[in-house]
Write a structure and sequence with these properties.
Mean pLDDT: 95
CATH class: Mainly Beta
Strand order of the largest sheet: 3-10-5-8
CATH superfamily: Jelly Rolls
CATH topology: Jelly Rolls
Shape: globular
Oligomer: single chain
Structural class: mainly beta
Radius of gyration: 15 Å
Distance between the termini: 26 Å
Length: 119
């Protein structure tokens, strides 16, 4: 599974970015509160495309810390370890648009580390 190509289309009124077309997928907006983080996790059945919607997004991807600008895309390949964090110095929640490609099932989350005691 590879990152889908993002298509940028200019229109007279502005533009749009198309992330997938006629592809089975699950789309969510993840919100992470100030100073919080999702579990460090990986998936066996899906890859995910994340698009940063707010300043202060921090993504851990395979041991590398990424600080994407608003609108930046991060591809999380199937099997990669990843988590979303909200920068501790950010006073507001941060959001990421998530486009999951492959078989989506919450049971596919393998938590490697979790602050909330989930396994």
């Amino acid at each position: 599974m590879q990152k889908p190509e993002t298509l940028h289309i200019e229109k007279p009124w502005g533009s749009f970015d198309q992330y997938v077309l006629n592809t089975p997928c699950t789309v969510k907006i993840l919100t992470c509160n100030p100073g919080q983080q999702l579990s460090l996790q990986r998936h066996s059945h899906r890859g995910e495309l994340w698009v940063a919607l707010d300043p202060g997004v921090v993504v851990d991807l395979d041991g590398v810390e990424l600080r994407p600008a608003v609108g930046d895309e991060i591809w999380l390949p199937l099997g990669s370890t990843h988590r979303l964090r909200c920068d501790a110095n950010t006073a507001h929640a941060v959001r990421v648009l998530e486009v999951s490609l492959g078989v989506f099932d919450e049971a596919d989350i393998e938590r490697l580390q979790d602050d909330y005691g989930r396994h």
